[in-house]
Design goal:
Blueprint lengths: L3 H17 L7 E11 L3 E11 L2 E11 L6 E3 L3 E12 L6 E23 L3 E22 L2 E10 L10 E11 L1
Parallel strand pairs: 4-7
Antiparallel strand pairs: 1-2, 1-9, 2-3, 3-5, 5-6, 6-7, 7-8, 8-9
Length: 177
């Protein structure tokens, strides 16, 4: 169950988007797809951005998993981030464009806890499953239709020293807009 403060924050974000997004004034709508690395492992990034003048509204889905090459450690770390972001986006100056966005993100993350057992090719740890809302951040830097997406989701800001923050960078291709 979500706390009253979290529900209010989500409701305020949805109302802000509904009030300010008017399809008749839309400047551009684009979609991005990327692959990258994060604090958890490697994975894919999907992004939809709607721009009105210099304001941008983004919806992103990020899925990253740990890649184990030699031996195995269980559980494998993974993270899924679903976020709504609002920010500033530069008008395209020639072939360059950039944006800086903040918002609310839902993070579903599996990390390792205390060591349970250790073998020659396998190590087992306690499985820690975190499902939480956090502050989402992203910046996008594009040249023509290829660029970088730098992202993060800071869940449970009061306990950042105990919880593992999720963030990374992805090489992306953008379509539309």
């Amino acid at each position: 169950m979500l706390s009253k403060k979290t529900r209010r924050l989500i409701l305020m974000a949805i109302i802000t988007i509904c009030v300010t997004v008017n399809p008749l004034r839309a400047r551009s709508l684009d979609f991005g797809f990327g692959v990258g690395t994060s604090t958890v492992g490697i994975g894919i990034n999907l992004n939809a951005t709607y721009q009105i003048k210099t304001l941008s509204y983004s919806f992103r889905v990020i899925r990253h998993e740990e890649m184990q090459i030699i031996g195995t450690t269980s559980p494998s770390e993974s993270a899924t981030d679903v976020s709504f972001l609002i920010g500033l986006r530069s008008r395209k100056e020639g072939n360059l464009s950039s944006s800086l966005e903040l918002g609310v993100g839902w993070l579903n993350m599996v990390t390792r806890g205390d060591l349970i057992s250790r073998g020659f090719f396998h190590t087992s740890h306690e499985k820690i499953h975190v499902k939480t809302f956090g502050m989402a951040f992203q910046t996008q830097l594009y040249y023509k239709h290829v660029g970088l997406n730098i992202f993060a989701n800071f869940s449970n800001l009061a306990k950042l020293s105990q919880d593992k923050p999720f963030g990374g960078v992805a090489l992306c291709v953008r379509f539309g807009g």
